[in-house]
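2.7 Reproducibility. Because tokenized structures are sensitive to small changes in the input, we list the exact sequence used for Insulinase family protein, including any N-terminal residues retained from the expression construct. No trimming or masking was applied before prediction.
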Amino acid sequence: MKKLNLLLIVVVLSLISCSNRQQSDEKLSVPYEQYQLDNGLSVILHQDKSDPIVAVAIMYHVGSNREVPGKTGFAHLFEHMMFQESENVGQDEFFKKIQSAGGTLNGGTGNDQTIYYEVVPRNALEMVLWMESDRMGYLENTVTKSAFANQQNVVQNEKRQSYDNRPYGYNSWLIATNLYPEGHPYSWTVIGEMEDLFNATVDDVKEFHAKYYVPNNTTIVLAGDFEAEDVKPLVEKYFGEIPGGEKVEDLEPQRVSLPETKKLYHEDSFAKTPQLTMIWPSVEEYCDDAYALDFLARVLGDGKKSPFYRVIVKDKKLAPRAGVYSNSMELAGQFTVSVNANAGTSLAEVETAVFDAFKLFEEEGITERDLEKHKAGLETQFYSGMSSILNKSFQLAMYNEFTGSPGYIEQDIEKIKAVTIEDINRVYETYVKNKPYLATSFVPKGQVDLIAENSVDAGIVEEDVLTATEVDQSAIAEEEVIEKTPSGFDRTVEPAKGQDPEITVPAVWTDKTENGMKVLGIKHDELPLIQYSIVMDGGHILESKEKAGVASFLASMLTEGTATKTPEELEEEIDLLGARIGVYSGTENMAISVNCLTRNYEKTLALVEEILLQPRWDEEQFELTKLRMINNIKRNQASPNYLASLAFDKLVYSDDHILSVPGSGTLESLEAITMDDLKEFYNKSVSPSVARMHVVGKIDQDRVMAGLGTLVANWKPFAVEIPKIEAPQAPEKSAIYFVDVPGAKQSVITIGHYAIPRSSADFEQATVVNYKLGGSFNGIVNLILREEKGYTYGARTYFAGGKNYGTFRASSSVRTTATGESVQIFKDEIEKYRTGISDEDLQFTKDALVKSNALEFETLGALHSMLTNISAYDLPFDYVKREEAFVKSLTPEMHKELAQRLIKPDQMYYVVVGDAATQLPVLKSIGLGDPVLLEL
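Resulting structure tokens (single pass, no recycling of outputs):
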């Protein structure tokens, strides 16, 4: 249940290039029908019959801004409660029923809103309306002390995972409590204070729910494949009898100002590099200045020609990047500069450089070409958002709640078009230049000398791992039977879903170029967009361990200019096309990926040809890239999750194996890489003989192949020797290994072993078999560790891998004091799972995996992934149908046999990253011998 920044989603969806002359007169909108029930519920219907699926989004106009000091975190806490159960939908049934229908669901809480959403095959729509209406109008009686206590613990562990147990995690709290005056609705974080979460009572949250989670404070959006005349009676049936609440008045904007600059610092136990954040108070969303501030942020910080890149990254080499952001919310806004500096860098120097960048901006000003560049990509982004019915439902709900009209998109676009150079300069003068700001310096423990000048200690008190806040669930007596609220019909009866929609696998065409590159494509005519990639076998597995990271280094360098274009010129050419072009290196491949408007296919392909065949080998960018990669590793070393993955790979593959080191390299290997190493790797790996192209979107095969003419003619093939990945030797027996992070608020647990590769015929079967163990929210380990015990925000198990390698892993981040019991639960449940699962659990697995195929072909990204899987693992075009047939044929006996063959509890590595002083002794009782303390 992620706290979605829904405002950003909507902003992306609503943007459109007003510089593109071919499209400047078009009006782009999302057609809808709107009406209101008698109880005040706003209903919006948007039909999209391109796929047999429906999205339902319910937005409650309540976020953390409706809370009061001493009772913070309620909106987010209640979001969790609404996934537990309602009067007529049983415990943990929300996820189970939606997944069994082949759907997906989640929710999110922000400062200003809470949203719940589902995407399901069209035959499950009535079931969704039944469930959503039940938790809107028939939930309060299920908020029992025991259910509430469980979610209090879950949210506390979410806070530890997302804020307390990670680098710079306290920064959002520091900003909220110091940018806004005490009592302001934004003066606390969405997740709330740990003390408030602990002290909250059932009566508190019931009162909060009764006030804000009412029809007249809510918008429901249905988007997808349905008929309006069919769904309107269903909406009335399920929601119409829910009483409206007292009128909830919209909050008025509450802008803030700082009387003087305020600077705070914190010695961060997890940080390895210093970070400076500077925030200026700004304006609420949808006002004219909010649009100009967004463009100001883009002009200052986006791209290699921006003042912040040129001063901070390129000239002074203080950081790998410098971010500038404008975030306008319902009541107020923030204009933010964020710089995660290189290791050992003084934040006083960074602060000075920020003002140098502002000075450069003032001296050079903004040109019309600058505006054109920053607007050019917005049309592509708009259409990309339009490809998803879920995104469209978010957009319609957000506009309705915050502007009063789902059709506000047209005004939104006009306001973007109306922004001028004068507007951008004006908001800079009004809100940023010479204005007081809040600055936060986060520095590694013991490096106070790196803080910005005149900063004072923020006084952050970190939680003691041994006295971690926890609600004692065992002390709460069992509640009586839940009382049912009267209804005009029997709400205990789940609506019948009817026949599942027939799944049509998209048609795939194939071709081959004269230089040996295989081409696969899917024509998808819904939007004027295409997505394509050229993938070459190789990547990390072609490296020597001594030069690990060279493939990733090369991938970064290939977009740093070409033989005829400087890095800045290449970036500008891409931006002016409204395209995205990136080069990426993976474990077994290197890929160049493109997203663009269909009309720009040939122009982007010309740039792709330059990038692939005419590298610039820019010496300055080489040094900047190396510096960035080294500092990324230093930052990663502060992440318990990174350390867990690093330790696990070292154990599984042993020291001599290339997969025992990350594809990003090590500090030693990166320091050793030279420009000649990049050229050598390029000359032995970038060949069409090992390349495959994947194209999806509104383009036909003939045009795709014709556009490849010059690339094919100029790209000469040569043989690339792909090394065979040898399977590592399995351990004689399972054992526990520990990585010490003193004072860690959580323990990161990773358990597993080497397993079958993704290319194995058994891989899909392994994924199916794993589903109920930990492959979904309703997996056994998550239901126990999260929903029953409240030890974690989530627990999972999964098979992963590539063409030549694979692993099975179980993982979770748990409260430090629950480490031993959590490891024991993982061990016990993995062993027990191999003895077989119930018929009910098997049917849940079958339903969830087969019916969810209806959702698999909606977006260009999904179709592109389908093509890359087909080409990488030599799958048949209808592999989805083949997998479907296997799932349907699965019996309890087959499931048991596969589980016993593919999951090996006696040959597992148990890796725990946490506080060794308190947790290492605890793990001795697991029965796997004394834990081994690892030094990474």
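The first strand starts at residue 33 and ends at 36.
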